[in-house]
Each structure stands twice: as C-alpha cells, then as structure tokens.
Design brief:
Layout lengths: L2 H33 L3 H4 L13 H10 L4 H32 L5 H12 L7 H10 L6 H8 L3 H12 L3 H9 L4 H12 L1 H17 L2 H6 L8 H12 L3 H36 L1
Helix pairs in contact: 1-14, 3-14, 4-7, 4-8, 4-11, 4-13, 9-10, 11-14, 13-14
Amino acid sequence: MTTRTFKLGNAVLTALFGIISIFFLLPLVWMISAASKTEKEVWTFPIQWIPKEWHFVQNFKTIWMGDVSFGLFYWNSIKIALISTLATLLISAMAGYALSKLEFKGKGLVFGAMMAFMMIPEQATLVPRYIMIKEFGLYDTHAALILMGMFSSYFTFLLRQFMLGVHNDLLEAAELDGAGFFRIFWSVMLPLSRPILATVGIIKFIWTWNDYQGPLIMLNSTNLYTIPLGMQFFKEEFGTTISVMMMASLAAIIPLLVLFLVLQKQVIKGISIGGVKG
C-alpha cells in the first residue's frame, strides 16, 4: 500500500465521520435554535435554523425567574450528582485496589459475587432497595439517592481491570520505603489511575444527573426534586411551549458540557488505554 493510497483512505474516512457527526449534532443545534425562538417560529416548516426574531433572553428569564423553582432543582441535581460521583470514585477505587493488588481470603469469591451482581437488571432490585430505604428512614431524602448511587460493581470492575496493569514493582518500591497499604493506594495507585478515574467520574456524573427513575421512586417533596423531575412543571405550566422546554433542556446540559471539556483529555486517554488493553 502506497503512502498516497493510505492518505486518500484517511481523507475518505475523515469525511465520512465528519458527515456522521453532523447528524449526531443536529438535535443539539435544533435545541439551541428552538430555545432562541418564539413558539410560533418553533412550529414553522421547513425548519428555520436561525431565528428571525430572537427570543433567547425572554425564554431565559422564564426559566430562571418564573414561577417554577428551576434554580432549586438545579442545585439539588448538582448536590446529588457531585456527592454520588465523589463517593463512587473513592469506594470503587478502594475496592478495585483491594481486588487487584491485595491478597486476602475469599478474594475470588467476592469478585465472583460482584460479577454475578452485574448480571442482575437494575429494575429487578428496585423493590428491595425501596423497602430498605424505608426501613432506614431515608425515604424522601437526598441521602437515599446518594446512598443507592455510591456503590457500583460495574465501576469497581473497570478500576480493578485498570489497576491490574500497574506494575507491582512500583508498589513494592513504595512498600520498601515504608509506605503502608493506604499510603500506597493514595500516593501511588490513585495518581497512576487518573485516566480511568476521569472516565468513571464523567460517566457516573452523567448517569446521576440524567437519572429519572431513582428520584421518581425515592422523592415525594417537590422542593427535593432534581431537574429530570422538575422539567414536568414546565410542561404543566406552559402546556406545549417547546421553546421554553428547550431552554430548560439547554440549561440542564451545561454542567455536562463543562465537565466533559475539563476532563476530555483524561477521558480520551482512559478510553484509549482501555481499548489497547481490551
């Protein structure tokens, strides 16, 4: 294969993926466009991508300064997603470290049980978890959602697989310097696991941020609602006002975009390492 043929193939693939990416981005572009229009323009066909009459500021005020407590829902989502993500990272990293580098009795049994639990659909455990939360007296609290979300066999498995690739020589060198298990975990293993931690962190944050099922079952008080639950009030308040709904949706995805932009290098590195190892 000549270099010229190789470059031509790359150019064709790049163009093909560029066209596919446009199709993926079209819903996001339409959402931004609809959030900037009047309701009449939203229903105009064929679609007018650039609004004739900009209504962005009015829709923005309706979301943040209207009768619906969108700011409170926003704060609730940030609090739950942030605490759940940090707790998941810490617990899953410690479990992954123990299952990958430490030797203890029953290690294989614990790992096998974890793998078996991964095969159980989440919906099958809803009733037992609901009963457990009620018994703990945590129903209708944010603590219920955080407690349910901070343990993950899936993320523990991901971190274990990554940590298995860390050379034992590094850990033994730290041990010779007098470091204990926790010191090795905190000062050696966690810094080396930054790419996979970033990947797990952003996936966990997105899952928690977009979770509708958990808050729907565990929350009853309106002032505790998260954004996915709170969005229904815009529908009830404004009927079929799509432009306002799109503005609320646009505001809801901003933290996810910011998080991805901040961690994108680490996330891509983590996925690349996982792909090479896989």
